[in-house]
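Bumping with the actual sequence this time:
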Amino acid sequence: MKILVETAGSFQILYAEQNELVRHYGITVVQKSQTMTEHMAMGQVLLRGQVNDEATDEEWLETLAGSDGDEELALASFLERFPVDAESARKAEPAKVAPSTTQMDHNKGQKGRRAAPNDTFKE
């Protein structure tokens, strides 16, 4: 099952194990998980609704844009389009995404460049 959440302040929450980000403004669609439940219990995240597993954050943003920014209208429409069914409600939390060890392009060494000239460290 997925949930519609928003932060309780001007901050964002990154759930790295599922590669999900709760934006610092507005509603975000995320997978229901123990981590999100803990954030809700601490008052950092507010639950706005529950939807089935087919709902995505991109579809939520499209729905919001289609309602001319009226969040309550978009929320009602989105909840109606993606109702929670029995199968989605009982589905277990997805497996955690394995961390990647891939080197990011901006961190790779560049040919012909050094951190410091060779003559910097003379003895």
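The tokens above came from a reply further down the thread. DSSP finds four helices and five strands in the chain.
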